[in-house]
Specification:
single chain, 6-stranded antiparallel sheet, 9 helices
Length: 295
Amino acid sequence: MFLLVFQSALAQNSFENFLKPSDSLNKKRQNTVFISEAVLASGALIGLNQLWYADYPRSNFHFINDNSEWMQMDKVGHLFSSYQIGRFGAEALNWSGTSKKNQLVYGASLGFVFLTAVEVMDGFSEEWGASMGDVIANASGTALYVSQELIWKEQRIIPKFSYHKTQYSNYRPDVLGSTFPEQIIKDYNGQTYWLSANIYSFSKGSKIPKWINLAFGYGAEGMISGNNDNNSPILVPKPERFRQFYLSLDVDLTKIDTKSHFLKTFFSVLNTVKIPAPTIEYSPHSGFKFYGLYF
């Protein structure tokens, strides 16, 4: 038993040392980050091509204007994705001891580069097309991360995500998802995107807990298709489309004090998701609503 405990302690200590960011440039780690990102991004694009684009005819590269679709929920999703992918890219380079400048140049830009590659694939598909609105949203997500690092040397405002199942996917499962994992990605009616602001960061020295955030959310409902005039005729009358605005409390998990590098890594990954909390909602459709816990 003593040997098992001793070996377990050694393994845990070794894992902690592995997760600890390097104090100076570790080229082996840096190369591992670059190779891993290249492999993951290439695999994701190849898989996306086979699963999403292969069944549709190709075309010459072209743009479309889809800025009015889905009540801009897809655009907010692009901003969120670009920010979070870029954040993970920058933190991975920080783990390797890369300079702050290179973290922002080669790490934080990862989200914009990857999502722009997806946009190019859209542009060569006859079914879709490249969207300048998507490109601007991608750039905005990257800019949100980089600007905060340059101005504040920390992330005070973090885009987050939450989802709850809705009835709308039952009417058009081919568009809004037939399984729960698909619905999380496709059913904009159940998605909520947040800007979670750390209160302590804006009032240094106060007695406010460092991990308490105030979150502002945006969502929309009543969407069976991208545009109201293209809604599926399955539902008569068509559901009313309306925007939703939220105010809630949240937790910045990265601000929780811990010496464990495993917990720091775990908290960083989980910090993409809004923590369920009491929430006030306002919409033109229903006015004000209060939720004891909203997700």
